[in-house]
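Re: [ENG-882] Designed sequences occasionally contain unexpected residues at chain ends

Forwarding the minimal case from QA. Structure tokens:
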């Protein structure tokens, strides 16, 4: 019985140590494994810096981030431009609260929906597109 207890203590200690190590700051590791340079092929054009494409329309944002759930109503998401699904939300909460919920996340929808590079105004434009005509 003492052997089993001893083994249990050793296993628990190993788990605790593994969790502690996993939570440590990885900045030193990332510094050690970062690339030391970049390769430029002779005759190839140099890489261009990413240029912002400018403001996106609500329809563009919807197509890139919202359509997967809002086109068919995944997990209760209100379907795009379906008055029966949007109007009760708008009547109960108002547009500003619906917008805030989209920014903060609500139910199964994570904060900012599925748009990792959207601003608050982008989210507003996408909602305005989804409720267009309602």
């Amino acid at each position: 019985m003492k052997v089993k207890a001893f083994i249990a203590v050793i296993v628990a200690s190993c788990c605790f140590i593994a969790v502690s190590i996993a939570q440590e700051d990885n900045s030193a590791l990332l510094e050690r494994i970062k690339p030391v340079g970049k390769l430029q092929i002779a005759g190839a054009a140099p890489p261009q810096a990413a240029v912002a494409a400018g403001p996106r329309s609500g329809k563009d944002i919807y197509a890139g981030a919202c359509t997967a759930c809002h086109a068919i109503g995944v997990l209760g998401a209100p379907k795009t431009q379906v008055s029966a699904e949007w109007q009760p939300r708008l009547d109960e909460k108002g547009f500003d609260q619906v917008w805030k919920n989209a920014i903060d996340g609500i139910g199964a929808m994570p904060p900012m929906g599925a748009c990792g590079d959207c601003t608050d105004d982008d989210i507003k434009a996408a909602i305005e597109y989804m409720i267009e005509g309602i």
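QA comment: On inspection the terminal residues look reasonable. The chain has two domains: 2-31, 58-130. Proposing we downgrade this to a documentation issue.
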